[in-house]
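Need fresh eyes. Consider my entry:
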Amino acid sequence: MNFKIRQAQSSESELISSLALRSKAYWNYSQEFILACRRELTYSQQDIQNNHFFVAEINNLIIGFFALEILSEREIELAALFIDPAYINQGYGRKLIARAKLIARELGSKVMIIQGDPNATNFYLKVGGKLIGERESASIPGRYLPVFLIKLYNLL
């Protein structure tokens, strides 16, 4: 098995968007809910070109991805982290978050902000996130999502 994490290609935007929707659906959300999330979880070629998108591959098959968005000189946001349902709970999420932290530090960030799905709360707590509040969903008005903070300066 050949596992690697590499920078995403803009031509992979449809694959990445499809993977995000499949991953979201893993949590048994209704079809209506998934459709409401479609716009937010669709990534254009420009999104991938202009931001920090990385994919995880096994034998050249994309099984997950993450995206980072620089907020300020010291803050970065984990804008996305999704794993294909067939690979959830196998440690790949931990590998992706570890790489995201490393890249965030290389970009000079001191903290990473994460708006997570409520079903991913335990995952983000286990990888060093501290629950700091909540934010209204961009897809579902009235739905609030947990927000986590990971300090990056004490990862040495």
Remarks:
- The chain has five helices and seven strands.
- Residues 79 and 89 are 21 Å apart (CA to CA).
- The helical segments are 13-25, 31-37, 45-50, 92-106, 121-126.
- The first helix runs from residue 13 to 25.
